[in-house]
């Protein structure tokens, strides 16, 4: 019987405007330049069904959405992503880079909205069936920087999403949640200061990847 190879799974996390999407794309490019097979995905989204769920979650007109419904929608999109994109790629030995994963739900809904760690872990067991990233890169920025960058982005595209419109104290709880999780799992998490130049952050991300693979 041929042994199933398992690839490497890295997720990028952080507050809105932290630059994680840019850093993930730069890492993907560098890995491909080295001849590695890389699959990129995003949450919520990543699949056709996931993108439909994403539209509901981020629609600024859906302000009446309750936290439990929000959390379940995130996990529905994630379950589709795991089965359709992530697990098949890992079984083929590819590197999967994900712009957010369950750590986002823990930070935003479990701790940020106060739904609790237990319920997030229980839903993760159903949706992800034990799948955890090998490395989680948190691009950390302060609340002021996050809000400033998010507003600038929204002005540029002349739109906003529902999560951007949450109160400042909610976003502060999210940042504190990420730092709490990183301290709780130091072997998996790498926290990188996202306030510097893009090139410096990119170098720090590569160092984190190289260290985790060593």
Write structural notes for this entry.
With 214 residues, the protein is an alpha/beta fold. It has one domain (8-213): P-loop containing nucleotide triphosphate hydrolases (Rossmann fold, 3-Layer(aba) Sandwich), CATH 3.40.50. The chain has helices spanning 20-33, 48-58, 67-91, 102-112, 117-127, 143-157, 168-184, 198-213, and strands at residues 8-13, 38-42, 95-99, 135-140, 189-193. The radius of gyration is 17 Å and the shape is globular. The chain starts with 7 loop residues before the first strand and ends with a helix.
Helix content: 55-70%
CATH architecture: 3-Layer(aba) Sandwich
Number of helical segments with 4 or more residues: 8
Judged by helices, strands and strand pairing, the structural class is alpha/beta
Oligomer: single chain
In total, the number of domains comes to 1
Stated plainly, the CATH topology is called Rossmann fold
Radius of gyration: 17 Å
From the N-terminal CA to the C-terminal CA, the straight-line distance is 29 Å
Q: What's the count of strands?
A: 5
Strand arrangement, largest sheet?
A: 2-3-1-4-5
Shape: globular
| Beta-strand residue fraction | 5-15%
N-to-C series of helices and strands: EHEHHEHHEHHEH
Q: Which CATH class is shown? A: Alpha Beta
Largest sheet: 5 strands, parallel
Residue windows where pLDDT falls under 50 for at least 5 positions: none
CATH homologous superfamily placement: P-loop containing nucleotide triphosphate hydrolases
Average pLDDT: 92
């Amino acid at each position: 019987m041929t042994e199933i190879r398992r690839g490497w799974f890295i997720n990028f996390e952080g507050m809105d405007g932290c630059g994680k999407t840019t850093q993930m794309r730069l890492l993907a490019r560098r890995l491909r330049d080295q001849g590695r097979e890389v699959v990129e995905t995003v949450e919520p989204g990543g699949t056709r069904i996931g993108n439909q769920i994403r539209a509901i979650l981020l629609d600024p007109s859906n302000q009446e959405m309750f936290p439990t419904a929000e959390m379940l929608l995130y996990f529905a999109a994630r379950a589709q992503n795991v089965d359709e994109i992530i697990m098949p790629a890992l079984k083929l030995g590819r590197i999967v880079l994900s712009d957010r994963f369950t750590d986002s739900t823990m930070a935003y809904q479990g701790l940020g909205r106060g739904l609790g760690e237990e319920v997030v872990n229980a839903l993760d067991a159903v949706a992800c069936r034990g799948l955890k990233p090998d490395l989680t890169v948190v691009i950390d920025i302060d609340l002021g920087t996050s809000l400033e960058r998010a507003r600038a982005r929204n002005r540029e595209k002349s739109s906003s999403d529902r999560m951007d419109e949450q109160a400042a104290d909610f976003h502060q709880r999210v940042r504190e949640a990420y730092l709490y999780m990183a301290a709780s799992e130091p072997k998996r998490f790498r926290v990188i200061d996202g306030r510097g130049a893009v090139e410096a952050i990119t170098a720090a991300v590569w160092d984190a990847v190289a260290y985790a693979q060593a």
